[in-house]
Amino acid sequence: MDKFFEIETQLIYEIHHLEKERAKETLRSLIDLIALRSGKETIRQVRNYYIVLSSVMARKLYEMRVPPKKAFAFNVACVELVEKHMNDSEFLYVADELIEFFTSVISERKQPSFGHQTVNKVVMFINDEVERDLSVEDIAKHFNISTSHLSRIFREHAGITLVEYLNVRRVEESQYYLRHSDKGISDISKQFHFCNQSYFTRIFKKYTTVTPKQFRDSQHIPYFRYNLPNAK
Fold first, then answer.
1. What region holds the HTH araC/xylS-type domain (predicted)?
2. Which of 47, 87, 192, 227 falls between 20 and 30 A from 120, CA-CA?
3. pTM for the whole thing?
């Protein structure tokens, strides 16, 4: 066990630098060490470690100036994931899902590098407040600029309209609730402020090519991730 914390430090570094596949391999190494020490208690001890690791990552997010409510919600979501899937056949699947979740949330904290600082700030604001019922007017008011000017500079620098980016982020975030919670699809639709479930399904399929139900029913469908096209 001498190398355990050294490897864990490597894992946190890889997550922070979005080295997702390396992080998955490193977490497997930690699981192997836990298994060597735990014997028949391996599943229980790995479960406990997943929860501890989730708390460590929540603290890291807080240190990266993630709003406290979001850091706490992140930790709760991780624990729910573990509680739902932790058994003999799925504990390695849980490891991969946690890394996917960790790197996704960390990536939101990477300061965008568009040529307009207001656009960079708007992206970070949306990432932090994605579960609020935001409109273009709300965002423009928050930054004390006109809606037309905000819409123009956002599309010019980000290569996507502000409304589209709001929908993209809501779809991305909704995936975790679809896969790791027992919330109904209509409830998730309301949570992310789509006008109705039908519209949520249409927007979700537009970006992921599958319906929310298809995504929920298959663990093999990969998560949708959107890369802003004009980021430097």
1. 120-218
2. 192
3. 0.73
